[in-house]
Design goal:
single chain; 10% strand; 335 residues; globular; alpha/beta; TIM Barrel
Length: 335
Amino acid sequence: MTISTQLATRERTLSLLGGEATDANLRRYLHGIPGIDAVGLEQRAAALGTRSIKTTSKARAIDTIIGLIDLTTLEGADTPGKVRSLVAKALTPDPGDPECPRVAAVCVYGDMVPYAVAALGAAHSAGTDEGVNVAAVATAFPSGRASLAVKLADTADAVAAGADEIDMVIDRGAFLSGRYGQVFDEIVAVKSACVRPDGSVAHLKVILETGELNTYDNVRRASWLAILAGGDFIKTSTGKVSPAATLPVTLSMLEVVRDWHRLTGEKIGVKPAGGIRTSKDAIKYLVTVAETVGEEWLVPSLFRFGASSLLNDVLLQRQKLTTGRYSGPDYVTID
């Protein structure tokens, strides 16, 4: 997204709201969106989760999952060495199989970005659609409890260090208190901090932390708010709060993305993160995406899995399809 695109997004948002993004205008718009039938949503998610995929389709699904993973380490004990090991796995998930695809990105804290960029070397995407991206969590992740100045500095530092993507957290306290204008303005400001000196803009993923939003209606409203403010992706969770990603919550966010695309023609990405650990679970998400917004969304620019342990299970399933037998856990690296 360029600066001119950002300006166009702002004009469209003001048009939809019928004025500036004040609390009153945002409340009128967001609370005018039809509510969610929770029982119906959960039943549809459960039905989609029962779909089975076999043989060649399963093999294609597994490769698709690998290519959609943001391989993540977000621990206080992270070190440059651990980040280099993560990058090595991102580039060569299965050293015994050169045909195994790479993951979409590595996701780290902002101070680890330089090490990720250096370790990726020529494989770093540098903001393009090729190679492996570097995503950085920012804005006082995971709580979001900091001043706006601190959040913007956090973001700008990560972008300057080479991050292609910023995963920001919204102020859930402000949202739940009805201070929608504050949340909107913070997203807009963080998006502005994503601008590089050449005028290009790092992609912005907006983390809703759905486990703290309490209701599906709040998830829907927060999703609309993040998109109206210019988010490129809406993301379920930090992975630090339970529950994290769930299929019904992700389905509700995909429905917002579908409705936004019908309204504006613009495609917004979705990233479920936290708690997706097996290929079986990940395939349920692929089916849900395909049935809700279409298979065209199953590309790294529009869908990601935020995960640390998912890749190992997917690699073991891939080896099973290739060799006909299950490998032990020592056939994949321990992250």
